C-alpha cells in the first residue's frame, strides 16, 4: 500500500502540478500586492474628491456595507487578467514546449467535429460512432483504410 502511494507521488505529473500550484500561489500574492498598492489608488483617484473608491453609496452616508465599490471590481478584474497572463506565459508555454519536445501534444486545438443528426449537438468528434448526448449511432464521415 505504501509502495503504491510512493509511486503515485513520484510520478512526473504530480510533481509538475505541485510545482505549478506553489508557483501560482506565489505569483498570486505578488499580483495581489501590485493591484492593492498600485491599481486601487489609481482607480480611487479617477473618481476624484475624497472618495473611498470608484462607486456609489446606496444607503446612509459612511455605511461601508451599502457602498457599491466598482473600483474594487475593476481591480479584481485587472488582477485576474494579470494572474492568468503570468500563469500562461510562465507555466503553460514552457510546459507545452517541454511536452512537444517529448513528442506529446498538450493544450492543442480540438479535432474536427460533426453535428448529430438526431439531437443536433454540434460538438461530436468526427470519429465518434455514437452521440454522447442521445446515444444514437453516427454516420461515418470517412471510411478508415482497410488492410487485407
- Which strand-content bin applies to the residues? 5-15%
Main β-sheet, spatial strand arrangement: 1-2
Instruction: Output the CATH homologous superfamily of the largest domain.
Output: Large-conductance mechanosensitive channel, MscL, domain 1
Q: Give helix and strand order, one letter per element, not per position.
A: HHEEHEE
Distance between the termini: 47 Å
Number of domains: 2
Number of strands: 4
CATH topology of the largest domain: Non-ribosomal Peptide Synthetase Peptidyl Carrier Protein, Chain A
CATH architectural grouping of the largest domain: Orthogonal Bundle
Q: Give the C-level CATH assignment of the largest domain.
A: Mainly Alpha
Q: Which term fits the overall shape?
A: extended
Regarding quaternary structure, what we see is: single chain
Mean pLDDT: 77
What do these coordinates show?
It is a multi-pass membrane protein. It is found in: Membrane. Its main location: membrane. This is Large conductance mechanosensitive channel protein MscL. The longest helix has 36 residues, at 12-47. 52% of the residues lie in helices and 7% in strands. The protein is built from three helices and four strands, in the order ααββαββ. The mean pLDDT is 77.
Amino acid at each position: 500500500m505504501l509502495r503504491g502511494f510512493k509511486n503515485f507521488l513520484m510520478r512526473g505529473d504530480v510533481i509538475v502540478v505541485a510545482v505549478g500550484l506553489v508557483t501560482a500561489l506565489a505569483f498570486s500574492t505578488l499580483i495581489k500586492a501590485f493591484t492593492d498598492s498600485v491599481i486601487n489608488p489609481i482607480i480611487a483617484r479617477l473618481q476624484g474628491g475624497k472618495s473611498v473608491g470608484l462607486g456609489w453609496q446606496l444607503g446612509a452616508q459612511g455605511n461601508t456595507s451599502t457602498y457599491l465599490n466598482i473600483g474594487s471590481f475593476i481591480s479584481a478584474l485587472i488582477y485576474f487578467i494579470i494572474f492568468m497572463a503570468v500563469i500562461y506565459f510562465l507555466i503553460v508555454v514552457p510546459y507545452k514546449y517541454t511536452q512537444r519536445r517529448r513528442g506529446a501534444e498538450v493544450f492543442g486545438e480540438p479535432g474536427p467535429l460533426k453535428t448529430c443528426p438526431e439531437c443536433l449537438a454540434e460538438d461530436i468528434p468526427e470519429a465518434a460512432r455514437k452521440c454522447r448526448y442521445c446515444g444514437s449511432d453516427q454516420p461515418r464521415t470517412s471510411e478508415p483504410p482497410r488492410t487485407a
